[in-house]
Amino acid sequence: MTGRRAVIAAGGTGGHMFPAQALAETLLARGWRVSLSTDDRGLRYAGGFPEAVARRETKSATFARGGFVEKLKTPFAIFAGVREAAAWFRAERPNVVIGFGGYPAIPALTAALRLGAPTALHEQNGVLGRVNRLFAGRVDLVAYGVAHVVNAPRGVEGVYVGNPLRAAALAQVGRPYAPPAPDEPVRLLVFGGSQGARIFADAAPRAVAALPETLRSRIALTQQVRREDLERARAAYAELGVAAELAPFFDDMPERIAAAHLVLSRAGASSIAELTAIGRPSILAPYPQAAEDHQTANAKALVEGGAALMMRDGALAERLGPALAALIADAERLSAMAAAAGALGRPRAAADLADHVERIAEAPATAD
Description:
By secondary structure, this protein is an alpha/beta fold. 44% of the residues lie in helices and 15% in strands.
């Protein structure tokens, strides 16, 4: 059993890499050997993967970036990556290859299909991404991170497993939630994805400034802020007299989510997975430039389930301050939102996905 080999292919954002990391941790614990196939950008997000996971940089590219000349080079880069992956798989044949989306997953999945290795996909969002749409009808398993995927291909029967959680997030599952008492600090957490959200650097201080002084003085704020926005945000909170811990990145985000009374964030798949598994109330502002508006699809399940409010970027300046004041003043509603979030959580997602992966690995696929 210890000879089983899995290759995880994932693209270069935290939204792809965090659930990929969670599956890697689970498979390692079950005795698998695990390799990560990604490009140079993806490797920047691979620092949290266990040391036992072998990193493999594979050439790839996307038509979505660069000018005309760069786009012309894209198919050649992908073809080179497929050749690299095929040579690797012939030398060290995987029992299964799992793609988590993003263009860096293309070479490994293509090579696996050509060689007849079992293949799987995991889609984190409520909208199937371009790469996953490309492969969905050809792989042995399609697993979904959310219950309702709006553009699931016809004839493809996917399984809903949820979004796998890293060990750091799983460690916070079950931590009780208590709303802020009238005489204690209100722990507000603001974050905007892997690199922070610029709009939050302006909107969050304005919202806090709009709070009544008696409430503003109780705010204990933690915020992820892009490096170029740090000084501006720091000055704004200092002028307001608000205790604020600001940084471009926090490597203990699950613990900070668990400690928060209320969270303001984008609606990326990994953020949603951790908010629901840990069970915390939130205000979600879907990133408007997300491919095919998938963050709105992600947020809707929480809004419909009573776990979150949703605000568009254009409404933040007007609505965020009053929403914060109303929620902080309503302990019963905060508690109900936290419970609703927890009811939507899928803490077993990594284990369930690993179960499906092991099942398809037992029956080799046929070659293209």
